[in-house]
Please model this.
Amino acid sequence: MARIQAIEPPKALPRQVRRVLYIGPAANEVCSIIAQHVGEIDMRYESDVSAALVVARQSRFDTVIVDQRDDRLATRLVVPLMAGIGYPVKLVVVSQFKDVGQYLAVPGVARVLTAPVREGQLLRVLGLQFKPKHYRDAPRVREPSTRQTGIFSTYTNMFFDRFTTVVSTAHKRLAFAALMLLFVAFVFYGGVIGYFLLSTSWGAPMSLARGHELVDRTEKDLMGLRAALNQTDQSLTEIGMEKIEAERLLNDATLMVKYALGTTSKEISLRARQYKNLKSNMTRLKKVRDAIARQPKKGGTTEALQDLYKKRLIDKKTFNSASLGLLEASQRLAKIEGDIKITQSQLTNVDANRAMLHALKAALEKGGEIASVASVSSELILLTKQSIDAKATLDLAASTLKSNAIKARQLSESQAALKLRIAALESSALARAIKKRVVVVFVPSANLGRFHTGAPLYSCLFTIFACQRVGSAGDAQPGEINSMHPFFGTPIRGQLVEANLTTAIAATRQIIHGSRKPFFF
Model:
C-alpha cells in the first residue's frame, strides 16, 4: 500500500508538458506512438544505463520507462536505482509476459507493460489522449475550454491509473498464488515419491466382476476341476464294476481250482495203485523168467542131447521130445522178457504221471509254475489244461482285484484333492466375483505383512493425506500375480487380498493403506 500511495496520477491539463525518460533500445517504436502529442510531452531517450542515471539525477522526470526486453543491456539494476532516485517518479517497466510477476514484486514499480507495447496502453500510462490514425488530416474543432472537461479528464485518468494498479496487484497476487500452488504440487509430488519408495503399507484396490481376466480364468479353472472330478467319479464307478466282475471270476476260478485239485488227488491215488500193481507184476515176471532160465541147466542143453544120442544112450524119440521142450522153454523166456520190458515202460510212464500230478497239485495249492506237460500221457492232457486254465483265471482275477484296489485308492485320493481344491476356489473372492462384484486389493509381496486378515484399511482423499478408515482386510487369495506399479508404472509381483469395505468410494481410488494411516495422520 505504501508503494501505491507514492505513485502520483499524471496531470491531465492539455498544455502541461510531461517529462519522460525512456531507457532502452526501442526508441523508434515509442516515437511513432507519441508523434501526435508533440508539445504535450518531453521524451528523453537513453540506451546507455550510466548516461540514463546521470540524466535522471540532473533533471526531474515525471515518468521513467525501462525497457527490459533486451537481455544484453545491463538494465536489471536500473529498476531499483530509479525507484530510489530521490524524488517521486512513476516507474514503468516493459518486459516479456513471463517476467511480469517478477517486476511487479519490485518495490517502486507502478506499471509493467508487456511486449510488444500497445499504443493505447502506453498513452494511458503517460496520461495522454488517444487520437485517431488520421488526426492531423481531420478538420480541427475547437476544444471546449470549460473547467468541467479538464476535471472529467483528470478523474478519468485517475480511474484508469487506479484500475491499472488494482489489476497489476491482482495479477501479481495471482502469479504468487500460482507459484505457491506449483511449489506445493512439487512438494506433494516429492512426498508421494518418498512415500512409495519407503512405505510398506500400501495396496491398489481392484473391483472384480464377470468379464475380468482373473475372474474368467478362475471360472475356467473351476470348470476344468469339476470336469476332472466327474471323470474321476466315472472312473471309480467303472473300477467298482470291474471289481465285482473280478470277484465273480475269482470265485469261479476258485471253484475250478478246487475241482482240479480234487481230480488231481484222485488221479494221484489211481496212479499210485497202478504203480504198485505194475511193480508187483514186474517182480512176478522176473521170478518166472529166472525159473524158466534155470530149467535148461537141469535138463541139459541141445549139445548134450546130441552127444547122448550119438552115443546111443537115448533113442530118437527121446531126443526129439527133449529138444522140443528146450525150444518151448526158450520161447516162453523170450515172451516173459518182452512182458518185463513192457511193464518197465508202463512203470516209467506211471512214475512220470505221478510226478506231474504232484507238481500240478503243488502249483494249484501253493501257486507257482506248472511243470512241462510234454511227458504227460494223453489221458491227463485235459486235466492238465483245465488246471492251467483255472490257475490262470485265478491269478488274473487276483491281479485284477489288486490293481483295482490300487487304482481305487489313487482315484479316491485324487477325488479328495479335487474336492478340496474346488471348495477352496469356490470360497475365494475370485470365484464369488463370478456371481457378484467383489473388491480386492493388489498387495506387493513386500507389503503383505500389513494386510493380514482383520487389518484395518484406510483410504485418503489426497493419496496420503486426509485419510479415514474404510474397512478391514480379508483372506489372501492363493497364487501370485503380476501387475503395474500405480505410481512408477513398473511391473511388480504380489497377491490379491479381499477387502471388506464399509465405504464404497474407497474402491475407486488409486491407493489404499493397510494397518495404519500414512505418517500416522
User: Anything to note?
Assistant: Confidence is low (pLDDT under 50) at residues 1-15, 134-149. The chain is about 55% helix and 15% strand. The two ends are 40 Å apart (CA to CA).
